[in-house]
Structure formats: C-alpha cells, structure tokens
Design goal:
Elements (H helix, E strand, L loop, with lengths): L2 H16 L11 H12 L7 H17 L11 H5 L43 H9 L1 H14 L18
Helix pairs in contact: 1-2, 1-3
C-alpha cells in the first residue's frame, strides 16, 4: 500500500466511523487536512489493529519525508550569535515544528484533561503533537486520566510513549 492508498484508507474509515462526516468528500492536498481534522475530533476509544498499523505506516512515512532536525544540526548560541557566556557552547535554541525535532522527550503544555485539542486543524501544539503521534497517544492519555481520577494539576506532567513522533 502506498502513501495515497494509506491516506484514502484512513480517511474513509474515520469518516465511516464518525457518522457525522460519512458523506464528506475531499480531494488533493485537503485530504491530509481532513485526516488531521478527523484525528483531532475523534474521542479516545479503541480502534482496530489493522487501522493502527496503516496509520503508523502513514505517519512514519510522513516523518521520514519531513526534514527531521537532530541536535547536531542546531547551532549553539555561541555558534549562532557569536556571543560567549556560561554554557553558550552547550545551549541551542530551536524554533520550528516540534514534531520535526529528533528528541528523547518533549513537554506539551496540554489542557488539564491531557486529551489534546478537539478543534479540527487548530494550529495549537496539542493538535500538532497528537496528529503526528497518532491516535494511540490520546487513548493512552485517556487511560492515564481515568486511572488518576482527576484532572492534571497545573505545572504537573505525565510520561507517555511517543508513538509516531520521531
């Protein structure tokens, strides 16, 4: 299955599952935006292994196509700005899409429910992370929150898998 076929499969299945978007038809580049929207509005709930396998193949291929930046690609403050100070040779500043950064961990300023943003294609970091990671991230966050029994307090954090984040 190629990338276009994966995209068609994912969109078709999410549209059928939702009922609300069952008859929506989008062509061209808008299909990726539709997939992202459908992923953003989908509540956390189980989905088939087949779907997740195809989703993972799709998202991993997208990640390969992105220009993923490694720490070694990012100049230090000293290199970038020619200034010297304590640790400036070890401090780097990244400005860009966090899903394009090769990192061991990221911290998301998520909402207190930790489920991501449910607004389709909203340009918030929650949507970017959840769309790139895949639907398992929202499901894992829902399980964590259910087991916890209360909203996440401001300033606290939870650790999850990265799923399809590079």
């Amino acid at each position: 299955m190629n990338q276009e076929e994966r995209l068609d499969y994912l969109v078709r299945n999410l549209c059928e599952e939702s009922g609300t978007y069952k008859n929506i038809s989008v062509q061209g580049k808008e299909r990726r935006m539709l997939l992202r929207s459908l992923m953003n509005v989908r509540p956390p709930k189980p989905i088939s292994r087949e779907f997740l396998q195809i989703q993972d193949e799709f998202l991993q291929e997208e990640a390969r196509e992105k220009q993923i930046a490694a720490l070694s690609d990012i100049p230090t403050v000293k290199e970038a700005y020619g200034i010297d100070g304590a640790y400036y040779d070890r401090l780097s500043i990244w400005q860009g899409d966090i899903t394009q950064l090769a990192a061991d961990a990221i911290v998301n300023a998520a909402n207190s429910q930790m489920l991501g943003c449910f607004v389709p294609c909203h340009s918030c970091i929650d949507n970017a992370i959840h769309s790139a990671a895949g639907m398992e991230l929202r499901e894992e966050c829902a399980k964590i929150m259910k087991a916890q029994g209360h909203e996440e307090p401001v300033g606290c954090a939870k650790i999850t898998k990265g799923y399809n984040l590079s």
